[in-house]
Amino acid sequence: xxxxxxxxxxxRTVDSHCHMDIFTSDGPAGSEVAVVLAEAASVGVDRVVQxxxxxxxxxxxxxxxxxxxxRVLAAIAIHPNDAARxxxxxxxxxxxxxxxxxxxxxxxxxxGLDYFRxxxxxxxxxxxxxxxxxxxxxxxxxxxxxxxRDAHDDVLKVLREEGAPDQVILHCFSGDEVMAKECVAxxxxxxxxxxxxxxxxxxxxxxxxxxxxDQLLVETDAPFLTPSPYRxxxxxxxxxxxxxxxxxxxxGEDPEIIAAxxxxxxxxxxxxx
Length: 273
Ligand SMILES: [Zn+2]
Ligand SMILES: [Zn+2]
What we know:
Layout: E1 13-18, H1 20-23, H2 31-42, E2 45-51, H3 55-67, E3 72-76, H4 80-85, H5 89-99, E4 105-114, H6 123-140, E5 143-149, H7 152-162, E6 168-171, H8 177-185, E7 189-192, H9 202-208, E8 216-218, H10 240-251, H11 255-270
Parallel strand pairs: 1-2, 2-3, 3-4, 4-5, 5-6, 6-7, 7-8
Helix pairs in contact: 3-5, 5-6, 8-9, 10-11
The structure holds zinc ion (ZN) (2 copies).
């Protein structure tokens, strides 16, 4: 069952990472996306970044961003778990490289490493794909949006070897305090999802305390990672205020200040919507 609408934020803010293609069924310009965007805007979340994970969803992200000026921007990539399985990775990467030239594509991602879902045998190809995505981000001067699951050390190692692009976002940050400090020092932006509200995540909350306001983003990763107390129910951008309020409480700050910082940081990372 769908969680109820939270109390609106007074400050307009952004869901910096979601997958509307997965939980709507009538296309990137359709009435279902319209409802998702309207519900989010009604509680203060008036902009979202739509993220692609393969060729089809990257195309969706661009069409969605083009259909909703002022509301939606696109991130495009071959997801690390998909990259590891593809027979023709080179063709898929060529497609992403071409699509990256679109003006409303503002980030290359989600790319990175996932050692949770990809077995040892797929990791060489996954790493190769990550390196190529870093090159694409640099070539097109776009922000790099990283997916890192159980691969913290190797993600940082590859970034060091390739040289990080000017702007890097760690989506659904899942590292500890030490990693957060390291990423902050490198100038990366750390994006926190509903996972920061989970009762089993004290290390993530400790990491959150290391992040200066100007390097913080918030996301839903909808339809996944629904914040507590609605864990297990469908997620959508209108639930961002729940995560923002949880972050504010953990940090001892005003939720409106967090919302404003997230909005500013999103504009810096992605450009104007
Ligand atoms: Zn991810
Ligand atoms: Zn995602």
